[in-house]
């Protein structure tokens, strides 16, 4: 748990705090907004490259981070438009929202359930048993997928609105605050729905406790 917490904290600092802090630090030295946005986006990309070098693997999200950085560089060189740089995160949220909602009709499991299964590899068989035997369990994860998918699309729309209506220098901090607010809000909804359904508590019990479909 300690290692997971440190990894999550490092990811938060690298992917959110460093870009926002870096942007305002660069602006304090009169770096033009578009270049400050580009350079402040380097920490997440460097984290992905570090993972690639040390673990010899990179996940889909990591590839998207690198892709958005490349698109941002191309945008900077071709247009010099800072507002296009501001909405790069919004395009990520849009893709995430579409991906989540599409998983409801494509594939065996919705994305939120797949994510939970990946985070709880030792509980995979229990989760699958609950999925097969409990309609309420399946309904809860499908509902969560809709919540996160729609939430991602709404977040994207608000981010784009801010990028094109507010002063450029106001947007990075406000967008970071918006991202945190959405993430916390969606997490609260997630926990409420999971607690209400109840099965996950049984799934998380120590392996010495027998869990089989139909019990509990």
TrEMBL record:
Transmembrane segments: 7-26, 32-53, 60-78, 90-109, 144-164, 176-195
Keywords: Membrane, Transmembrane, Transmembrane helix
Keyword Nucleotide-binding recorded: no
N-terminal signal peptide: none
Domain of life from the UniProt record: Bacteria
Protein name per UniProt: Intracellular septation protein A
């Amino acid at each position: 748990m300690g290692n997971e917490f440190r990894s999550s904290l490092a990811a938060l600092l690298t992917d959110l705090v460093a870009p926002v802090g870096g942007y305002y630090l660069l602006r304090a030295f009169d770096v033009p907004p578009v270049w400050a946005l580009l350079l402040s986006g380097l920490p997440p990309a460097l984290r992905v490259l570090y993972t690639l070098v040390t673990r010899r693997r990179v996940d889909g999200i990591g590839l998207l981070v690198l892709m958005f950085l490349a698109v941002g560089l191309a945008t900077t060189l071709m247009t010099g438009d800072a507002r296009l740089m501001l909405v790069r995160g919004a395009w990520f949220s849009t893709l995430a929202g579409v991906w989540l909602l599409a998983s409801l009709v494509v594939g065996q499991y919705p994305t939120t359930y797949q994510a939970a299964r990946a985070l709880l590899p030792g509980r995979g068989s229990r989760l699958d048993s609950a999925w097969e035997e409990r309609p309420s369990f399946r309904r809860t994860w499908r509902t969560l997928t809709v919540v996160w998918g729609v939430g991602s699309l709404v977040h994207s729309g608000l981010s784009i609105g801010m990028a094109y209506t507010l002063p450029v220098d106001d947007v990075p901090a406000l967008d970071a605050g918006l991202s945190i607010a959405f993430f916390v809000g969606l997490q609260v909804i997630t926990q409420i729905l999971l607690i209400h359904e109840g099965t996950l508590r049984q799934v998380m019990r120590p392996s010495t406790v027998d869990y089989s479909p139909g019990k509990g």
